[in-house]
Design brief:
The protein is mostly helical. It has one domain. 65% of the residues lie in helices and 0% in strands. The chain has 2 helices and no strands. Helix 1 packs across helix 2.
Length: 79
């Protein structure tokens, strides 16, 4: 399974925070391409990350920040 194909919103949130924190290091994602060609799988991951970064650019910080807050509320235990 290629990274980001199922959990789009969660990856957008992660990439948003990495950008907001001005992270300049490496990204590491669990990928075990049992059925896929490893090089092709890596190329797809890179393209997926670039596409998700374009989503962040398209919507802008304010809307992504609202999304982050909404996702955080949904994932937090309710009291």
């Amino acid at each position: 399974m290629i990274v980001g194909l199922i959990h789009h919103v969660e990856y957008i949130v992660i990439l948003y925070w990495l950008r907001k924190l001005n992270y300049q290091g490496w990204y590491s994602m669990d990928q075990y391409p049992y059925r896929e060609d490893g090089k092709k799988a890596l190329a797809e991951i890179i393209e997926t990350v670039k596409a998700l970064e374009k989503v962040i650019d398209k919507f802008g910080d304010e809307k992504i920040s609202q999304l982050v807050q909404r996702v955080t509320r949904l994932k937090s235990p309710q009291r």
